[in-house]
Structures are given as C-alpha cells and as structure tokens.
Design goal:
The chain is an all-alpha fold. The chain has two domains: 60 residues; 68 residues, no CATH class. It contains nine helices and no strands. It starts with a helix and ends with a helix.
C-alpha cells in the first residue's frame, strides 16, 4: 500500500475525509485484488476508521467478501453503528441472509439480535410480508432466549 493511502486511512480514524481524499483510497482499492481490499478494510474496522463502511460498500462486491466483512464488522458494532452495517449488507446479501447471519453470530455478550431488531424495520417495505414475518420470528426468538 502506498504511503499516501496509508496516511489517509490513518487520518480517517480521527476526522472525516474530503471527497477527494476518499477518492484516492477508492482508486487504490479498485486497482488491487478483492482479497487485498478485504484485508485493508478489515484493518480499517480495527482502527475504527470513519469511512470504512462507505468505502466497503463501493469496493466489496462478491458475496463471500461481503459476508466476511459484515460478520467481522457487525461484531465490532454498537447499537448505533449496527445500522450502518445492515445498510452495507442487506442490499448485497438480501434481508433473509443478513437475518440468518445475525442469528448465527448472536450471543449473550454481543446481543446482536437485540441491536438489529431496532433497525431492521427500516430495511423492509410495507408489502414485503416474508421479511416482516422473518422479523417477527426473530423478535419471538429474542423473547424466548434467557436473559
């Protein structure tokens, strides 16, 4: 990774980047293989970079890498940032797949289902009855799980 990109990623941990600075990172990431892109974005999650999800949405496209990144990032999320991770993954993986991942990753220490249930209705249109039913089942599972 070139020094300019490295410096911008570091800078993004404490301030927002300009659109021009973001473009420098995007151009670099688009020029390398997706496996390397995934590793760089993963390190940005670890560094708590402010542009991670925005950039990930633009450069990660294959189902495997989107799934890996969502699984990694959502575990690092809090009650607010989980919305951003849902917004990243649902358009790329689908509502049902994301709900399944949340169920699989959920445990007592991360409380993913609890955090996700608050935001998931934003991603369902009124006439998507299957998605609404899936959300209701998720809510029931949460009620039945021991606290």
């Amino acid at each position: 990774m070139n020094d300019r990109v490295q410096q911008l990623i570091q800078t993004s941990t404490y301030r927002s980047l300009t659109s021009q600075e973001e473009k420098v990172i995007l151009d670099y990431l688009k020029s390398i293989p997706e496996v390397a892109v995934y590793e760089i974005i993963k390190s940005m999650v670890e560094q708590k970079s402010l542009v991670t999800i925005v950039i990930a949405k633009k450069v990660l496209h294959t189902r495997d890498y989107v799934t890996k990144m969502f699984s990694y990032g959502v575990l690092e999320s809090n009650a607010q940032t989980i919305k951003l991770w849902l917004d990243f993954a649902i358009p790329k993986l689908g509502f049902k797949s994301v709900v399944k991942l949340i169920e699989d990753l959920n445990n007592d220490s991360n409380r993913l289902m609890e955090k996700a249930i608050y935001w998931l209705p934003l991603f369902i249109s009124e006439n998507e009855t299957r998605s609404w039913n899936l959300l209701e089942k998720l809510k029931e599972k949460l009620k039945c799980s021991p606290i």
